[in-house]
Amino acid sequence: MKPIPNEGFPAEDHDHRHCTDRALERAAAICKRRGARLTDLRRRVLELVWSGHKPLGAYDILDTLRRERRGAAPPTVYRALDFLAAQGLVHRIESLNCFVGCSDPELPHSGQFLICTSCGSVAELNDVRIDDAIRDSAAEAGFTVGRRTIEVDGLCPHCQEQGRGPRGRPPHNIAGGTPPLSPRGPRGRPPHNIAGGTPPLSPRGDGDG
Amino acid sequence: MKPIPNEGFPAEDHDHRHCTDRALERAAAICKRRGARLTDLRRRVLELVWSGHKPLGAYDILDTLRRERRGAAPPTVYRALDFLAAQGLVHRIESLNCFVGCSDPELPHSGQFLICTSCGSVAELNDVRIDDAIRDSAAEAGFTVGRRTIEVDGLCPHCQEQGRGPRGRPPHNIAGGTPPLSPRGPRGRPPHNIAGGTPPLSPRGDGDG
DNA sequence: CTTGATACGATATAACATAACATAATTGGA
DNA sequence: TCCAATTATGTTATGTTATATCGTATCAAG
Questions:
Q1: CA A15 to CA B157: how far, in whole Å?
Q2: Minimal CA–CA distance to A209: which of B150, B21, B4?
Q3: I want to staple B31 with a disulfide (CB 3.0 to 4.6 A). Which of A149, B36, B123, B139 is the partner?
Q4: What is the pLDDT of residues A130-185, one digit of tens each?
Q5: Per-residue pLDDT tens digits for A14-52
Q6: Cα–chain-centroid distance for residue A100?
Q7: CATH 1.10.10.10 fits B16-140, yes or no
Q8: How many beta-carbon contacts under 8 Å exist across A and B?
Q9: Which listed CATH number (1.20.120.530, 1.10.150.130, 1.10.10.10, 3.40.50.1980) goes with A16-104?
Q10: Closest to A195 (Cβ–Cβ): which among B86, B151, B200?
Q11: Which class is domain A109-171?
């Protein structure tokens, strides 16, 4: 079996226990080194976030946690997530109001996310070329860059292979959002989506803004 | 006075009526051309979104609307915003749960946003270099790109000139977020922020991920 | 074994968003 | 013009996500 990558999508049949175990081990080491307290609760929340490569909502975590601890409540989860995010062990996906485990927690970073709209799985990139492009473009506007939120919807390799299309719509991906990446030509339209919304990014050279 | 740009931050003393008027005129023309109905309500919501260059929450809009129409309710606003977003006349800022007017609505696009954490103003970029970098990087992971969410926190030129720092923290920019862009050296830390969170993007060449 | 700091429990509420169904306005065709 | 279909809005209710606040427990250092 191929090694599980730090970036991009893991094989569909990868042994996910490796991911979880590795994440927990790294987290323990990182927290120890920093003198941060990875308590049972925090460790458990991290484990739950790592139960798959699909992002989990705070209330999903809470549902599970309630079965395990008397009196778990929203702040229980949010505080744990705050801690984990501050340590760079999880990332928040703004466009989904969800959380995913960080695939490379040793170095703090904002994260760049690929979100498959068909299967829901999320992969992390950390490509300096993207940060460079953003910094350069921002600099031309006189803007100094801090935190970046980069979340890219689309189709992961597995779903492309299987000819799957996007399922449902992410929250507030309002009517008119990016149409499925079909070879060409429309296939019916949501109600008032005349403009067609954000076009997809095609392989290169057809000049979209 | 300098012309008001489509991209980047307008001068602090620009005549904002021009922005609003222009946006409303363009919106009317676009909707007419597409056969979309820019009703009084939708037009008014667009005008409110354009009341400044700071993003407005749906409930901010609702507060104003309630003073003008009996029975305005959340769906009133969200439906109008859905329409406007479908037409590419406004963008949603995911990291703020807010909306801004689109500065270039003729062409549908995902939008790239610079968000000043000091004054709260937002500027739109539409730089193909950023989209190119994302597409290339995503392609290496076998991912086909659809909608992009690109939101960059930092300091706008005006706030940099005046030596302002970030004010407060955006929602869920969890403890440990990007530190203010000081010339050098820390200046105290939030509670368990040992890692320091996402580092800023410095002018180039100091190899951050 | 005390002190100060940090973490967690518990309750309440704020902020953001949508579901569902009724009514009204608009459009296009008979 | 009038009707029927469609689209837009009114209205009520509820779902979902996130925080505020304050009290108690646990921990690490001296």
A1: 49
A2: B150
A3: B36
A4: 999 999 999 999 999 999 999 999 999 999 999 877 776 666 665 454 433 222 23
A5: 999 999 999 999 999 999 999 999 999 999 999 999 999
A6: 6
A7: yes
A8: 298
A9: 1.10.10.10
A10: B86
A11: alpha beta
